[in-house]
Structures are given as C-alpha cells and as structure tokens.
Amino acid sequence: MGASLTGDGVNFAVFSANAEKIELCLFSSDGRKELCRLPMVDRDGDVWHIHVGGLTVGVVYGFRAHGPYEPEQGHRFNPNKLLLDPYARAYEGRLKWSDAVMGYKVGSPRADLSFDTRDSAFAVPKSVVTDPSFSWGNDQPPRTSRADSLIYEAHVKSSTALHPGVEKGQRGTFLGMSSDPMLEHLQKLGVTAVELLPVQAFIDDRFLVLKGLKNHWGYNTLGFFTPEPRYMAQGAIWELQTMVRRFHAAGIEVILDVVYNHTAEGDELGPTLSFRGFDNASYYRLAGGGRYYANDAGTGNTLDLTHPMVLRMVMDSLRYWVETFHVDGFRFDLATVLGRESHGFDPHGGFLDAIRQDPVLAGVKLIAEPWDIGPGGYQLGAFPHPFHEWNDKFRDGARRFWKGDAGQTRDLAARLLGSAERFDHSGRAATSSINYVTSHDGFTLEDLVSFTIKRNFANGEDNRDGHDENHSDNMGLEGPTRDAGVLAARALRKRNLLATLFLSQGVPMILAGDEIGHSQGGNNNAYAQDNAVSWIDWSKPDLALHGFVERLSALRRALPVLRQRRFLHARARPTDGIPDVIWRRADGTIPMHEDWHDPAFRCLCVELRMSAEGNDPSPEAVFAVFNTGAKVPLHLPDTAPGWQLILDTTQPDLPLSGHPAKTFTEAPAQSVLLFRSQTGNPMEA
C-alpha cells in the first residue's frame, strides 16, 4: 500500500471499495503544478494500483477519486478534491485553509448535501515518495522491564523550545529532543522511557487558525505514516530516526502517543483531504443513515476499525513505526474506541486481538487510555494483557487524599497496591497500572498546588473547556505568590504527591516540567498554546524539587519491594510466615472495618515485603507512612529487628543513606515517611 520503490520506478496502491475511478496525479517538485493524471486501471479486489517507470525518491503526488456524491448514503466522492495518500511517508507543503478543501459549497442552504467543483490542489499538502532506509548501526532497544520503568510524558516542542542548552536551530525538533542536555537531564531523573505527544502528521483546526492559535498537542492526525514536519529541522525523516537511536544509546525507550480513533477530517462539515474522498463509507463509522458520523472521540468522526482494510491500515502503521523508526511502544489515545465492536466494547475485539498476535508488535509496550465519550466508554481495567492502562483513579485518589477530602484513606490504600480491584484478574500484573498525578491533560504539578480554578481564557472558549473538577488546592492563596508560608506548603504538597506516586505499585509516569516547577498559569487544557504558556521555562528551575525527584527515582530503583510485578494479597510468605502486606494505624494496630470508613483516619501506614506468591526469600521490608493530618505519635512495627528512615518529605535533604529510627516517635503533619528494615543492604549514598 502507498508508494513503493521498485528499482525501475514506483508502484502506487490505494484502497477504495466504492470508487468508480481513481487517478494518480503527479506534481512538480514544489507541489504547485499538476503535471499529469494517470488512471489507475489495475485493481485487485478493492486495492487500486499502478506502476510508473522512471520515478524515484522525491516524486510529489496525490490522487483524485471518482464515484457517487450521495452523503445520505455515506458516499462523498469528489474528484475536484486532491487526496493525500493514506500511506504517505512524507508531505510537501502544508494545509492552507480554504473553502475549496470542502467537498460541499460552504454557505449553501443544502450544507453538506451540496457539491463543490473548485480544485483543492493549491490548498492541500501533497504526498512524497520517500526512501526510509537509515544506518542504525548497532542500535538496540533497551527493552526495560515493565516493573523497572519510569515514564516521562513530554511534548517535543514544549520540552525544547526554551532550553538554553539546545542549539537554536534544533529547538522544537526531534534533534533537539534527543540533544545531549535533554538526555543528561532524563538520565539524572532515572527515566527509562519518554512518551511523546503525537508526532504523526496532524493539522491545525480551522477554528483555531481563525483565532490565531494552533493545535499544539497534535491530537488531529492526518498522516498515520508521516512524521510531523514541524518537528524536523531539515524536513527529513532521518531526524526522527536519529532521535530514537540517540535515546536508545542513552538507555531510554521511545513511546509514541498515537491517535487511531479519528482523523483530522472532522464531521460532515469538515474538509475532504484523504480518507473521506477515497471511501467515506468504509473508513468511518456512520450514523443517521450514512450522512452523519459516530462521534465517540468527541472530534467529529470515528474510524471504523471493524472494516478489514481500515484495521489493516492501522496495523500497517504500527508496524511501520516499529520497523522503520525502532520505536518501543505506543500509547493509544481514547483506546476504548479501538476496542468497540457493533455490540459495544470487547476486550477480544478485532483490533485488540490483531495487535496481540502480531509478531512485529510482540516486543513493544502497549498503553491504553481506557475511556472515550461513547456508550460504555469508561473501561479502566478491562483491556487484556499485555496492555498497560492510564489510571485516572490513581490520579484523583492521590489528589483527593492530599487535598484532605474526608474518607479517602481507603481509596489511597487501593492505589498504593496497584489498583487491584481494577487490574487483578485474567493473569494481569500490578504493572498494568500506569500511575500518574499529572499529565498533559490537566494542571501541571505546580498549578495543582497553586490554583483551585482553571484559567483557560487564552484558548478562546470563555474558559468553558478543560476539566472543572481538578481536586486541586492553592494552599491558601490563588495563583503566584511570594508568601513564604504558602510556598513552603506548596513545596511540601508536591513532594507528598510525588512520593505517593513513586512508592506505589504499578508504573510511575511524570509530566515533563513537573520536576522543575513548570507552570501553565492555571491553564489546564493548553492544547492550543504553542507559546510560553506550555513551553517549559528552563531558566528558573526548582533545583530542590528536581533533586527530590532524583532521590525518589533512586529509592525506587534500589528497592524491588516497591516495584513488584505480582499483586500483594496479604498472604503469609513461606520463607518467614509474615504477610507480604500489613496495613497499620499510626499506633501500630491493624485497622478495623470501622477505621477504613472513619473520616478521621488520615494517617495510613503500610508494611510491604516481596510477594508471598513469588516465594522470594528476601527478608527486606519497607514501612511507609502517609499522613495527611496533624502530627501523630508513631509506633514502628516489631516485625523487623530495626528500621532505617530513608525518606521524610518534611526533610527533603535527608541523606539517601538515611539514619536509624530507634528514636523516631511521631509522624510529622502532612508527610510521607519511608523506613527500610535493617536486614537489608545499606542504601548507597
């Protein structure tokens, strides 16, 4: 499929089940002049193809598809609209918004039932024949185990646009993202994988362009095989390949956030750029007899992955990014859409079955965002192994506990053990849960402790967009302040949230910039802010916070008990007869049923050992304290000969080696404490 080099020319192949005629259009190298149209007369089933001798790398092309224009029956063929190859590997030019890219006459009383005859070629990008070969040398994927992973969610441009250590010509690009300063920063944090917001080619929505804004996040994909041109300093795909190779050399995996639930063509009033023009009835899930679109993603349309050729396109795309770019995994945006069959979400549906049996994808990490706005859209915990899932229950539970909401201690206990009530089934592991306190979607960590009300006015939607329920707390004053007391309280709250994240079972994910105190000024939906709102300001880093994150990461790496694959079920270990998890109150007693439902129960303690089911003989244990209330007397367990305090969020500069806790008698207010049994090996400084 797409354009393939054959040695003596190029073979072009596209899919359409309902077209009556398809033409290949060749253009000048700058894409401005259409040179010729060649009818694609060969057809195998629903794949139309043509071989053109003498063509080579750099040829600029597009297609025109002829067929019925019957929107009420789902058909929207319009040969006046130049179409991008759904399998295009590169683009020439960018989309210029014009009414000519619409298949209908804008302003017509018949709306999308009307037919527009203007040629759109001048306004749309063109496809380019590309040779993706690259010298990978001895590149090896890190293949970090799930249990040892620390994910860093980042945006290519936001991470590098203001970084003083990145060369100016590489800021905002793949090369800048993998520059030495960025790699050194990530290595210091102990990051094992970067999860990049969409880098498949996308467009800026027309309503944003009219406001002078851009689709900064990129969840508006047009090319599932095309790296986004705005992230390439020289417009060459080797730049992305180089980025991946450099990350791998640094021991860091690359995970791509991908959007296969919808396309950039929008609803029935959207443009005709590719899929709609080739075969609207096949590519999309339609409603209202065929004229309208299912909108499970909230973006106007929904790809129909129950169609075999659409499913093939998505699978071909995933394999392409693994084989051509050596990426190590994917995070699937609104993944419930991908698993929805005619009868509803199905964990054994076509796409989920296809991806799990694919040999090329067998070794990569798969992460689901387990919800959408469609029927039965919330599916946290329902995806099959080997999927990880973004766990918003962890996000909200941790936020509410530290905010001081009553009755949250029981929920926090579930989050600390990997949200077993959601994931402990069907042989799934505790690492199925991707734990996070913040992500690109919502407040940054700094804003989470600085604002109680979102401030999204810059998005031009009168502050109606973005989440209203953020479970945030400004610690006494709204927004930026110089009040030393408020700043100290905010710093402690951030440390408590981060400590909760790193001490929990599952896979931790941190948001780029949180480690240095990045703020978006209270904007919790900065999808359209390609500017200083979302760009990380590296000139004023919170070095103390950065050092604390390094410390947490080092603790997690040093303590296997904090990153177990098996769920803990409070079963006695065969090696020493001690349960692998013991819940305690601050006074050392075991919480009773009524304690778990007591709003005043605000100091939760837990003693952890390696899982009884794993039969690990290690005698090492940790004792963690999460106190969201006032200071309280603390009794250390007598199940170990002694304890060593190795983390106290009220003392962020506590030496990594810790100190004996024999005289430790109370848990400070608003604190996280971590003790290590003295039967373990001393912590390295």
What do these coordinates show?
By secondary structure, the protein is α+β, with helices and mostly antiparallel strands. Among the domains are: 2-128, Immunoglobulin-like; 565-677, Sandwich (Immunoglobulin-like), CATH 2.60.40.1180. 20% of the residues lie in helices and 20% in strands. The protein has an 8-stranded parallel β-barrel. Strands 26-27-28-33-30-31 form a 6-stranded antiparallel β-sheet, with helices on one face. A 5-stranded antiparallel β-sheet has the order 4-3-7-11-10, with no helix packed on it. The chain is elongated and about 85 Å long. Mean pLDDT is 94; it is low at 680-685.
Which helices and strands, and how do they pair?
Blueprint: E1 2-5, E2 9-15, E3 21-27, E4 34-39, E5 42-44, E6 47-53, E7 60-66, E8 69-70, E9 75-76, E10 91-92, E11 126-128, E12 151-154, H1 156-160, H2 174-177, H3 180-189, E13 193-196, E14 200-202, H4 206-209, E15 221-227, H5 238-249, E16 253-258, H6 275-283, E17 286-287, E18 292-293, H7 308-325, E19 329-332, E20 340-341, E21 344-345, H8 350-357, E22 365-368, E23 388-391, H9 392-403, H10 409-416, H11 420-423, E24 433-436, H12 445-448, H13 484-502, E25 507-511, H14 543-558, E26 581-584, H15 593-596, E27 603-609, E28 621-627, E29 632-633, E30 643-648, E31 659-660, E32 666-667, E33 671-677
Parallel strand pairs: 12-13, 12-25, 13-16, 16-19, 19-22, 22-23, 23-24, 24-25
Antiparallel strand pairs: 1-2, 2-6, 3-4, 3-7, 5-6, 7-11, 8-9, 10-11, 14-15, 17-18, 20-21, 26-27, 27-28, 28-33, 29-32, 30-31, 30-33
